[in-house]
Amino acid sequence: MTKLAEWLLGLSTLGVLWGVVTFDLLGLELPGSYREMAWPLPVYLLVCFGCYSLATVGYRVATFNDCEAAAQELQEQIQEARRDLKSRGLRL
Asked: pLDDT tens across 3-41, in order?
């Protein structure tokens, strides 16, 4: 099973459970407090997912490794390309 299928299965399961609790589809006669708690649950989960995503991206950006050797190699290639273009008559 692919990750997409796993996520879709989990989200659809949560969606069905949310619908059953919110709209009392099975006639379970749950207390009103359960329905009041379940109604804004998708928005709450979306906000939590957004916060988690923002924190993950921030952490990955903060701990991104610098590649000094690659940066030096790129600068050398840029200088080489400039010399080559200058020898062909292009003014930079």
From this structure: 999 999 999 999 999 999 999 889 888 888 888 899 999
Q: What is the pTM of this model?
A: 0.62
Cα 85 to chain centroid, rounded = 42
On whether the CB atoms of residues 30 and 21 are closer than 8 A, the answer is yes
Residue labelled with tokens 């998708």: 42
> Residue 29, by phi and psi: left (phi above 0), alpha (psi -120 to 50) or beta?
left
- Cβ–Cβ under 8 Å, residues 38 and 22: yes
What is the C-alpha separation between 33 and 54, in angstroms, rounded?
Answer: 31
Q: Which amino acid makes up residue 20?
A: V
